[in-house]
Design goal:
Blueprint (H helix, E strand, L loop, with lengths): L1 E5 L4 E5 L9 E7 L8 H10 L12 E5 L8 H10 L8 E2 L14 E2 L4 H7 L52 E5 L8 H5 L5 E3 L6 E3 L9 H5 L5 E4 L4 E4 L4 H4 L14 H4 L6 E6 L6 H8 L4 E2 L10 E4 L6 H8 L3 H9 L3 H7 L11 E5 L3 E7 L2 E6 L2 E5 L5 E6 L16
Parallel strand pairs: 3-14
Antiparallel strand pairs: 1-2, 3-12, 4-7, 5-6, 8-9, 10-11, 13-14, 15-18, 16-17, 18-19
Length: 415
């Protein structure tokens, strides 16, 4: 083991390889408030990469209904239980920041053990704690879809006599779109005895060299998100490849510019923005994650430093969201509930172009609305959001207030 810095947990931690970050890290932001679970992303990925024999159960991209759904079933509950170890490893956070700008510990300090440290403490003779799901747990990619949690029993026969209002609904669920997080410290990479898994230096995408893989399934066991999947037909493991030919700009549609992945570009609900984490504060992904901190990592306490981030849902219980996204979840929801001018403009850029947006500009417009949110004055401006390509080319330009079009009387829709 060596010590590496994990900014999501605010401290150094044990990991079997030295810290090595790419120049730009493949990353994405998902807005869970917009997801409608249409599964278009799931089928776009499936039809592109997973149509061969032995891949029938493989869903590199899936959309789960929380709190009961999961693929494989119970993946998060089981991993959290293993990590907690019957309460001997309290998964607690200290929200004290250790530096003035909160760059080293933006979410506070995680005081428990990560999956790597827990394996070391318990002398498990492996790099991370984990388990291999049973065949039964891989059966359905969207099991318990739309199954809501409630203060009452969920098997009641009559219509529930309860009413929900924000900020937290009494009866709730939300959709969680998932794919490989292309972690900075992947559990799968640490676990592989063949060193068949590697992280690309140019963009941080995690891939498997299938010529080296021998199907030991250590990666399946020790990936806490269960996004590496064993294919019995070929006896090797496969995983999301982040549509790397598109990321490399090899698709002619974008004229050689880096392009969004299939699951991102197919999103009907416009919940996704895919790009790179870098040092540019005008990069929309970097701004959402590192500067405004409205998009949070999924289970940062695992210690893998995942690079897919989520804007948390407004209506779910805060305690549930806190254990899922970390201690900054209330602040993130507050920022989304009453968005700043900059956030409102950036949200308009979600899923507007297949070409990856590297930088954004905002042209200020007139104030069109004013109200009070949570007792505070809030103003709405019709600004213009502009997305730029890597070479500075303008890709998209649109206003915050979407235009409306009225059909002429002679062409009215009769339906």
């Amino acid at each position: 083991m060596t010590l590496v810095h994990n900014w999501q947990i605010g401290r150094k931690m044990d990991y079997p390889y030295f810290e090595s970050r790419p120049e730009r890290q493949f990353a994405a932001v998902f807005n869970t408030n917009r997801c409608i679970a249409c599964q278009t992303c799931t089928m776009a990925d499936k039809s592109t990469w997973l149509y061969s024999r032995g891949q029938e159960y493989m869903w590199w991209n899936n959309v789960e209904t929380k709190p009961y759904g999961g693929y494989p079933q119970h993946w998060d509950v089981k991993t959290l239980a293993l990590l907690s170890n019957n309460g001997e490893n309290p998964l607690t956070w200290s929200t004290e920041k250790d530096d003035k700008d909160n760059k080293k510990s933006p979410y506070g300090l995680y005081e428990g053990e990560t999956i790597f440290e827990a394996a070391k403490t318990r002398n498990l003779n492996q790099w991370a704690i984990g388990y291999i799901p049973t065949d039964k747990e891989w059966r359905f990619p969207n099991i318990d879809e739309d199954a809501a949690a409630s203060e009452k029993m969920n098997n009641e026969l009559q219509v529930a006599q309860e009413y929900s209002t924000l900020p937290v609904h009494k009866r709730w669920f939300f959709y969680l779109a998932r794919l490989c997080n292309h972690c900075t410290y992947p559990g799968c990479l640490a676990a592989c005895p063949r060193r068949a898994i590697y992280k690309r230096k140019e963009d941080g995408i995690v891939l498997i060299d299938q010529k080296r893989c021998r199907g030991y399934r250590k990666c399946v066991e020790q990936c806490p998100y269960k996004k590496t999947m064993y294919r019995a037909q070929t006896r090797v493991t496969e995983k999301c490849v982040a549509c790397y030919p598109r990321i490399e700009g090899k698709d002619p549609i974008t004229s050689g510019r880096p392009m969004e992945t299939r699951c991102m570009s197919a999103c009907v609900g416009k919940i996704r923005m895919q790009g790179f984490l870098d040092d540019n504060p005008k990069n929309p992904i970097t701004w959402l994650v590192k500067h405004h901190k409205v998009a949070l990592p999924l289970y940062p306490q695992f210690g893998t430093e995942p690079n897919v981030y989520y804007i948390p849902p407004r209506w779910a219980p805060r305690a549930y969201l806190r254990q899922m996204f970390g201690p900054e979840v209330e602040a993130a929801i507050e920022k989304y509930t009453a968005p700043s001018r900059e956030l409102l403009a950036i949200l308009q850029l979600f899923r507007t172009t297949q070409t990856i947006i590297y930088e954004y500009r905002i042209e200020q417009g007139p104030k069109v609305y004013e109200t009070t949110i949570n007792g505070k004055k809030w103003e709405y401006y019709n600004d213009t959001a502009i997305g730029l390509a890597k070479d500075g080319t303008e890709l998209v330009r649109l206003t915050v207030e979407e235009p409306t079009y009225e059909s002429p009387k002679e062409r009215l829709n009769s339906i």
